[in-house]
């Protein structure tokens, strides 16, 4: 099984950025622990702060991978383009968020990804990614 995790803007700062909201663990370290735990899953990771690069990556893998776990960060609430791309590809996408977006600012309650995603996992910290992996298994 081949699964790609895509993180959007500012998620490269995990462990440093607003630890009260996002925790203090570096994502690379967490990703390594996922790869160790799920040896039967070919896990890959991609991060970009640029919307078009995320769309390009979705198009690149969206017809050949078994699953995509997407935390589009702020683009979740603004990017019709990413939402349309998910609708256009065949690989199932699970939308994840580290924080509970519904307990935050009202603009974070809207997702352009959710209507086209297989499912949404919100508010379980970094464990949201692991829950998404388990959903593909």
Could you walk me through the main structural features you see in this protein, from its secondary elements to its overall organization?
Strand 3 (67-71), helix 4 (80-88) and strand 4 (93-97) form a beta-alpha-beta unit. The model has no long low-confidence stretch (mean pLDDT 91). With 137 residues, the chain is α/β, with parallel strands linked by helices. It is globular. The protein has a 5-stranded parallel β-sheet with strand order 2-1-3-4-5, with helices on both faces. Helices cover 33% and strands 19% of the residues. Helix 3 runs parallel beside helix 4. The termini are close together. It has helices at residues 19-22, 27-37, 51-61, 80-88, 127-136; strands at 2-7, 42-47, 67-71, 93-97, 119-122. The longest helix is centred in the N-terminal third of the chain and has 11 residues, at 27-37. It has one domain (2-136): Dehydroquinase, class II (Rossmann fold, 3-Layer(aba) Sandwich).
Helix content: 25-40%
Helical stretch tally = 5
CATH H level: which superfamily?
Dehydroquinase, class II
- The rounded distance between the terminal residues' Cα atoms is 9 Å
Number of strands: 5
Assign the CATH class. Alpha Beta
Elements, N to C (H/E): EHHEHEHEEH
CATH topology tier name: Rossmann fold
Shape: globular
* CATH architecture title: 3-Layer(aba) Sandwich
If strands are numbered along the chain, what order do they take across the biggest sheet? 2-1-3-4-5
Radius of gyration: 14 Å
Q: Which stretches of 5+ consecutive residues score pLDDT under 50? A: none
β content, as a range? 15-25%
């Amino acid at each position: 099984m081949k699964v790609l995790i895509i993180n959007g803007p500012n998620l490269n700062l995990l462990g440093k950025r607003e630890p009260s909201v996002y925790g203090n663990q570096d994502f690379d370290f967490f990703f390594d622990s996922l790869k160790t735990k799920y040896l039967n899953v070919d896990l890959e990771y991609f991060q970009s702060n640029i919307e078009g690069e995320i769309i390009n990556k979705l198009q690149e893998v969206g017809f050949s991978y078994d699953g995509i776990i997407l935390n589009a960060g702020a683009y979740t609430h603004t990017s019709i383009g990413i939402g349309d791309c998910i609708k256009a590809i065949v690989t199932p996408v699970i939308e994840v968020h580290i924080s509970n977006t519904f307990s935050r600012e009202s603009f974070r309650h809207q997702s352009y990804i959710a209507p086209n995603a297989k499912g949404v996992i919100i508010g379980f910290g970094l464990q949201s990614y692991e829950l998404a992996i388990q959903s593909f298994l």
